[in-house]
Amino acid sequence: MKRILADAAGKPLRIKTSGEFKGASRKVRVPSKFEFLLLEKVIADLGFATNANELEGEFDISLIHNISSAVRQRDHVKLLEALADYSPQSIGELAGDRKGLFFAIYQACCLLKKYPSKGSKARDAALSGFLKYERICKTFNLENHKALLRLDRSHPDFVGIIDEIREDIERLIGTGPNIQRIFECAQHGPGSAIGLNSESGMVTSFFKWSTIPYTVSRTARPYAQACIESDPRWIGALLDRYRNQAGIPQWSPVNMDDFWNTTFQEVEYCRYTSVPKNALTERPIAIEPTLNVFLQLGVDKVIKSRLRRRWGLDLHSQERNRVLAHEGSLSGLLATLDLSGASDTVTRLVCFLLLPALWYDFLDDIRSKNIRMPDGIEVPLSKFSAMGNGFTFALETVIFGACVRAAMRRTGCKGSWSAFGDDLIVPTGAYPFLVNLLELFGFIVNDEKSFNTGSFRESCGKDYLSGTLVRPLFLKKPIENVNDLFYLYNSLYRMEEDYWHLGVDFRETRKWLFRFIPKEFRYYYGKSTSDISDTHFYSRRPPLKFESRKVCLRVVPVSPTFNSRTEEFLFRKLMHNLKGSPVDQFGFTTASGGSAFDITLRGVVTYKRSLGPVWS
Question: Which 8-state DSSP code applies to residue 311?
Fold first, then answer.
């Protein structure tokens, strides 16, 4: 008997329920400059025609004029420049306690704030920003640190501050690194590395294990060799490969000097690149040598473990910062603080002054000390580690967190605090001292994203106004396929549900978006059952029926794998974590899906139809 998919009324639907989508079948056709049309629709749904009358002075006229002018000219840069003055502080001053009005203006200003720009202008802006922060770091290393040392000796507010922070950090991470523990925690990261074929997507775990020679800096090479020798599987796989390629029998000795020289390729630089960020600039990052980042991620894991146990900071979750930001917006007793170019301004000298000597020496050995710029010239880094270094995020959390703790001690402030990278939360009484302390160490406080007064707080992707969530939607990528459209539609749908008390209603915008969903995919609907928002569009419509069962059709991404049994299997064994599998509440092993031995390519994904049950 043929199984038939039907709508809620029992009418049979002649659409496929399984199989892959071929070619451009997921593509959607949207108008040129779609993002500006979307902004117009969202503004209309936000009710600016009504809310504008409530605004004071000429703020409403200038706001609407600036947006309308930029939209008509289809100019991202002009739009962002026109809206630069509309910060949460200025919006809050005008909207007061009218949360619905605050959100409407905030959303209109933010929708395209992070929309990426195509072309060389954004890349050039990223490079200019990177070089600017390098100059700031170099100036601090050569001259500006003298003010810090002078105040550390004589100023009553800062006497002994360097030793105090260094001792606090030493109590956190110890006098020196446990090298063997770092080896045990070391791992390959998700990004690219020098020596890998990133254009073909060959940057996943398997290729980092099997692409020989491994790239590594001269000072990190001894640690990399010791790390390999500490893992019998790894050294065994490399020796077997070396013997096979050189035709050396298993019983014959190996020239270990030649073996290690063919295993390693010394690279004395990381490579500059940039990735999309917003219409004005891209985000500068550095691509590290393979085994440098492998060791760096071992440090990252060790430091994160210490932060969680000793300072109560879990860098695997942003929940602590979000909860405290919510509390701060209600009570006004906690401030949120953000830094500009945080990782780009952690200088070599700051790390030298604040880290225990043995830790500094080790981290200095496994970091890249030079960077190769787009013109091919290698220059020394004035910062300690660029974004892309595996331990940068954990290290900056340690330094910024220690500054927060020092500020609280020096001002006698009690209460909650937190640090998640450069997202800092501190009692308001310690805020002025913390700002001065951070600037003394060469860091730059972002005044537009730091909040010490008023009822607005922002941290780790959550924005609160007097305890009410007012986080806007950011369009971060062009709409190219049906999954992108699902995500945008569902984001607006969820905002209606989350912000119902603010009177938010994007119904007309969602109706407009629905027009661009191809007819087949209009049957891919159902309830919101998880945080995955791009597999179907959310709807209150009755579910589909399949053999009398309520079901939902979804577009599910699947990473294709290839598993040829060749000599490469020696390296595939290294992809398997020898730790025990997770178990459920009853003690049974839980399946994580797939296999640890599966080889995948970065960016190569197929999409399949999935027919599943509807959860209530």
Answer: I
Q: 572-584: per-residue pLDDT in tens?
A: 777 776 555 555 5
Both tokens of 343, joined, read 């990782």
Write out the E strands in 500-548: 525-526, 537-538, 544-546
- Cα dihedral 182, 188, 191, 193 sign: positive
3-state secondary structure of 603: coil
Q: Are 484 and 534 in contact (CB under 8 A)?
A: yes
Contact between residue 132 and residue 139 where contact means Cβ atoms under 8 Å apart: no
CA–centroid distance for 154 within its chain: 41
Q: Are 195 and 290 in contact (CB under 8 A)?
A: yes
The two three-digit tokens of residue 399, written as one number: 């330094």
Asked if the peptide bond before residue 213 counts as cis, ω within 30 degrees of 0, the response is yes
Instruction: Please give the single-letter amino acid code of residue 339.
Output: L
Tokens of 265: 């390729």
pLDDT tens-place string over residues 240-281: 889 988 899 988 899 999 999 999 999 999 999 998 887 778
Backbone angles phi, psi at 135, to 5 degrees: -65, -40
CA dist., res. 592 & res. 27, Å (int): 30
Decide if 240 contacts 248 (C-beta within 8 A). Answer: no
* H, E, C per residue of 406-469: HHHHHHCCCCCCEEECCEEEEEHHHHHHHHHHHHHCCCEECHHHCECCCCEEEECCEEEECCEE
The C-alpha angle 383, 384, 390, rounded to 5 degrees, equals 120
The one-letter amino acid code at 70 reads A
609: enclosing H helix or E strand: strand 606-613
**DSSP H helices in 220-347:** 221-229, 232-246, 256-263, 290-306, 319-331
